[in-house]
């Protein structure tokens, strides 16, 4: 089957660093994507890892380890506006993006 | 603005009824995806169309159906509605066919079944 596991909630303070982990069990796996969704809004693409290693985009970085079926999203210098839900999603053969249930990040001052 | 347009933004309907949700993909995108997001649930993949043909099917109920028209817009038809069908329905599009890594979501259609 296809499933992704990620924590349901994470809390942090402004300026901190937070890591959101994602483990996956899929066949025909191509890569791992991350999406951000503010309350009731449209999910928006953050990053994609097809190869092992770290991808950096500004304050956000994403990591993938294929051998461990594991990835994470790293958010640095947290801001209040980063409070949102973050979804990992797997790209795989034969189907569209399959999303995890999401991690709600709450950033406090 | 992702360039994906969904209508209507909100609708309220009664159990047993049928509704149609409409989606216009980004200009040039051939793939359209439909996702359902219920309260406290993730994004459940329903179905994908690519250039007018069904490409992949997810957890779509038999009461639901979709199609993509020659102008590439898509419609999701939900029939015999039940209270549990109340959800936010997203359409997304991408240029790629299967396994496109970046898909662009519309703002969604909020469906409330009463």
Structure notes:
The complex is a heterodimer of chains A (109) and B (114). With 109 residues, chain A is mostly beta strands. Chain A has strands spanning 3-5, 9-13, 18-25, 29-37, 44-49, 53-57, 60-65, 70-75, 84-92, 98-99, 103-108. In chain A, a hairpin with a 2-residue loop joins β6 (53-57) and β7 (60-65). Chain A is globular, with a radius of gyration of 13 Å. Chain A starts with a strand and ends with a strand. Chain B is mostly beta strands and 114 residues long. Helices cover 0% and strands 51% of the residues of chain B. Chain B is globular and about 35 Å long. The termini of chain B are far apart. Chain A binds chain B through residues 30-31, 33, 40-45, 48, 50, 87, 89, 91-102, and chain B through 2, 4, 33, 35, 41-45, 48, 55-56, 58, 88, 90, 98-108.
Percent in strands of chain A: over 45%
Fraction of residues in H or I helices of chain A = under 10%
Helix content of chain B: under 10%
Q: Indicate the mean pLDDT of chain B.
A: 93
β-strand number of chain B? 11
Cα-atom radius of gyration of chain A:
13 Å
User: What is the strand tally of chain A?
Assistant: 11
Report how far the terminal alpha carbons of chain B are from each other. 31 Å
**Spans of chain B with pLDDT under 50 lasting ≥5 residues?**
none
The structure class of chain B reads mainly beta
Briefly characterize the structure:
The complex is a heterodimer of chains A (109) and B (114). Chain A is an all-beta fold and 109 residues long.
Question: What descriptive keywords fit this protein?
Answer:
heterodimer; A: 109 residues; six-stranded mixed β-sheet; five-stranded antiparallel β-sheet; 0% helix; globular; B: 114 residues; mainly beta; seven-stranded mixed β-sheet; four-stranded antiparallel β-sheet
